[in-house]
Design a protein that fits this description.
The chain is of the alpha+beta class and 417 residues long. A hairpin with a 5-residue loop joins strand 1 and strand 2. Helix 2 packs across helix 5 and helix 8 packs across helix 9. The longest helix is centred in the N-terminal third of the chain and has 24 residues. The chain is elongated, with a radius of gyration of 27 Å.
């Protein structure tokens, strides 16, 4: 049975694959970026735009795609299509030459007359010219350039893909959304220069929608009055990804936190045993094992930068870079990674009560540039102290005299007013 890959099918699949490859490389340090993966992302995005434009022009007339038109050859191609019952003349093995990407853009603008701002069109056109140069180098030669330059080119193109192709070829995005229902939010994130995972979460929480998660917090006071804090469940704090493009480094943390412990290097204690999976609702799931493995942070000594002792019932955090992995209800994609900045967070628990409150703000923890949009989310909820104990262990990583409290609370996340 013959297989058929149409312009539209190839364009939509390439757009999804190219965006995924771009985002994966963007999160890596320069030394860890892969030339083959970058090259494939360039090829995929070029293919998506090229074949998306071809699909749109074919709806007007297939002849618009031919670079040179020979009437006899074109007539023969249409006869061959009918004889072979091929879905289009472009599905025939007949040799023909079509326009390159820049020419397709010019023809689309002349024939389709899309209502697109001149500045946006120019930015997209210039980005596509640079993209085609790198694509030709990758396909016909050997790719040799800085990864930052390639990513900058892809960012320029992707930041204008939806405003341009969404007008010229809306069916491309309809088809691509069936493959990745986060696509619109992720492209919007690139347009606004903000972490695309954050944009997905922000778009998901359209008012009056909110998410309520169950979060666990472990507060360990060491004998020297240093504090270690572990958040798991709803808010997983980690050092993974810190130092990548636009990411705040550990030194940028203020308030209670001094820095982040590297993944796998956190000091964990034997008691209490955490549950195997967090209790969550509203469709938000957190892989607790990953959170426990990666989310220990070291706090500064008591009294520094306005930090009140836990015995006073209030803990304040100025800011802390973090990371979360979640799965949103109704999304057909797997876990969503979100870089967050925990900002102006306060945790209060009175001396005479095992019930307290938590409130604060979440901001994007990673932006593509300094101009990234700050889309705040508010967090608020109640917390309940589950237990408190003093360690008597001398050996191991838990010094004698360490006091540990752990709390569980329902935390609501929604757009900040």
């Amino acid at each position: 049975m013959p297989k058929y890959l149409s312009f539209l099918d190839d364009a939509s699949a390439s757009l999804v694959a190219g965006l995924r490859g771009y985002e994966a490389q963007l999160l890596l340090d320069e030394s860890k970026r892969d030339a083959r993966a970058l090259s494939q992302a360039v090829i995929d995005i070029h293919t998506a735009i090229d074949k998306g434009l071809k699909h749109a022009l074919c709806l007007v007339s297939p002849t618009l795609l031919f670079k040179k038109i020979d009437s006899a050859i074109v007539q023969q191609m249409f006869r061959d299509q009918r004889a072979a019952t091929a879905p289009s003349v472009f599905a025939l093995p007949t040799r023909f030459e079509t326009h390159n990407l820049e020419a397709l853009l010019n023809i689309s603008r002349a024939v389709l007359a899309p209502n697109i701002q001149s500045e946006i069109w120019t930015q997209f056109e210039e980005g596509c010219t640079a993209l085609r140069t790198r694509r030709d180098q990758a396909v016909h030669g050997e790719l040799f350039t800085d990864s930052a330059e390639l990513l900058e080119t892809l960012t320029r193109v992707l930041s204008r893909t939806r405003p341009v192709l969404g007008v010229i070829c809306p069916s491309l995005f309809s088809a691509a959304y069936t493959l990745n229902d986060q696509l619109e939010s992720r492209l919007t994130g690139i347009e606004t220069q903000v972490d695309s995972g954050w944009q997905v979460l922000y778009d998901f929480l359209k008012p009056p929608k909110s998410l309520t998660v169950t979060a666990l917090m472990y507060l360990k006071v060491l004998p020297n009055q240093e504090i270690e804090i572990l958040l798991s469940g709803g808010l997983a704090v980690t050092s993974a990804g810190l130092g990548t493009m636009g990411m705040l480094p550990p030194s940028a943390a203020s308030g209670a936190f001094l820095g982040s412990v590297a993944a796998g290097q956190g000091r964990f204690w034997k008691k209490p045993q955490p549950p195997k999976s967090p209790q969550v609702n509203s469709g938000l799931l957190i892989p607790l094992e990953a959170a426990l493995e990666m989310s220990t942070v070291r706090a500064m000594r008591l009294g520094e930068r306005g930090l009140l002792a836990p015995e006073d019932g209030r803990l304040r955090v100025g800011s802390l870079p973090g990371w979360g992995a979640l799965k949103l209800e109704g999304m057909n994609q797997s876990f969503l990674s979100v870089a967050v900045l925990l900002k102006d967070w306060q945790f209060a628990l009175t001396r005479d009560s095992d019930e307290g409150t938590i409130e604060g703000t979440l901001l994007p923890g990673r932006t593509i540039s300094a101009q990234g949009t700050m889309l705040p989310l508010a967090i608020a909820g109640k917390v309940y102290m589950q237990a408190e104990y003093t360690s008597t262990e001398v050996a191991g990583d838990t010094p004698a005299g360490t006091t540990t409290r752990y709390f569980e609370g329902n935390i609501e996340m929604k757009r900040a007013s």
